[in-house]
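Two records follow; treat each independently.
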Amino acid sequence: MPFGSFLIAVAAYLLGSIPSGFLLMRIFRKQDIRTIGSGNIGATNVLRSGARGLGAATFFCDMLKGCAAVWLGALAAPYLMAGAPVRSVEALAALCAVLGHMFPVWLGFKGGKGVATGFGVFLVAAPLGALSAIGVFFVVLALSRYVSLASILGSASFPFFVWLLVHGDKPVFFLVVQAAVALLVILKHHQNVGRLLKGTESRFGAGKRAKESA
């Protein structure tokens, strides 16, 4: 791997690995989110802990770090990866930022499920696709009240929206990363899938805190 792409990959990973939910709960509630509910550090578990404001802040921060990773990657591309398609550089940063969120070095590589960060990276790299996928998320959530199902179907829809709505050059690596990130998010929800099939998954706003959050 060329040194420039290595630097972008590492920087994006480190940005993505900032554990927003963990830090916000530590700072404002003096609690370890990993000991609450599902133990997940993502926005849903923070929200279900009773900290609604911190849950919203976690989603925003996780999204923002994804946006920042891709934006900075594209900004550095002419200097570190001259000649490479910008969308390929954005895809590299996107993939590494999501991996950082899912497997943060600071927390023993046990992180979140990547929904907010995935939305953030593609809000910069493929905005129409990201907005369409988050639209699917909200429709499914409104109809089913399952955050996990909304996350899975929203993620699954994203590569198709990218193919349909992103215009101009679409390098193979760019398209592969869209599918890879969607697959990673879905795989991170494997326990939720099991509970959905058994009918034991908790619904959002049902008044019952999930043991395993989406």
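The next record belongs to a different protein.
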Amino acid sequence: MEQSSYDSASTLSQMMISTAHATVEATYQSDWGRIVATLIRSFGDFDVAEEAAQEAFAAATTQWANEGVPDSPAAWIIQTAKHKAIDRLRRQTRFQEKIESYALEVDWTTEQPDPFSHQIPDDRLRLIFTCCHPALAPESQVALTLRTLCGLQTEEIARAFLVPAPTMAQRLVRAKKKIREAKIPYKVPETAEIPERVHAVLTIIYLVFNEGYASTQGEQLMRSDLCAEAIRLARFVRMLMAPYPPAEVTGLLALMLLHDSRRDARVDSSGDLVVLEEQDRTLWNQDQIGEALPLVRQALIAPDAGSFTLQAAIAAEHCRAVRAEDTDWHQIVFFYDRLGLLQPSPIVSLNRAVAVAMAEGTERGLSLIDEILASGDLDDYHLLHAARADMLRRTGAYAEAARNYERALALVTNESERRFLERRLREVSAVSASDARD
């Protein structure tokens, strides 16, 4: 009887620990950006906000395992982080006057019914505009926002920028120091100041969406919370610039809606990647597509249409096709040609090469891929090697395709993509081995 009671208590304890860890991870994934943005507004310091948030999450792991998960996990994290930030600032005598005012403002109860304001503009939009201040270098703007809003680690951001982690860490330190020393305000700027920052803001929102659409690391291919957040922020920016928002604001919103419309078809029941041509298009969100297509047309005819609009036009061609074989690849190549003139980059060239392969034949696309490979610009980019492997697979060059899949696997960091590449590698390796025996 005593052993049975002990076993039951042990099982309950393990369940509480498991639930606590899962909730901490889920709260971090979905609410890190909101929490840090709220703390920055309260304390005016990026480092204090991030460190306090990290300490609060660490405390939650232990406390929730012992006491149970609170009704509002994010509110608990915010209040705990505020307490820890105040404790930290109290130890710094030069902040004593600020502390006295902070202590009066903080509600010392643990639970809050709704820790986030949904008014326009909100803390996250303030955060983006602060990070996109013209006084900061463009690469610092992007890195700082990915760190604070998305919660990406320095190593992940460095990998995205193809620079060493210490270099990225220095950029982040300099950016925070610049904000502090220049007293850059934590707010959405006046209407007259928005146009000069809007391109940087749109770039940031797009990168947030990209991290949600194809996560840098982790088991899951997508983070739907980041996709939804990026779409929401784009809507806010468009409303801020009404009644005549720039074409690129409209184009970016349409682009993200179109990409996100395919979310349910991009992975199978096991969470593995499903490539575009194999997706079940009946799973695509037709409401989002219906909203986005008129936005694409509206942005395309505007004189200030830019790269986001052209990317939206490409996505629209995919979403218009009822079947993969109905895709107008020649039109897509046309849009990539325009995009390459407007915003030349190795990534655009790679995507254009894939479109050319579909429109004009695999051999032509493969030759374009080889030109990019010879330049060395994307040698550490796993999708370049994956694209080349796929084209070789289609031409029957299975042994060479296998070598390219192996190179892609050495570079990929997302587990869902890794499993897809491993499956492809097994397939081409099996055929190559069979051909060798014959």
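Discussion point: The CA atoms of residues 131 and 141 lie 5 Å apart. How would you locate this feature using only the token line?
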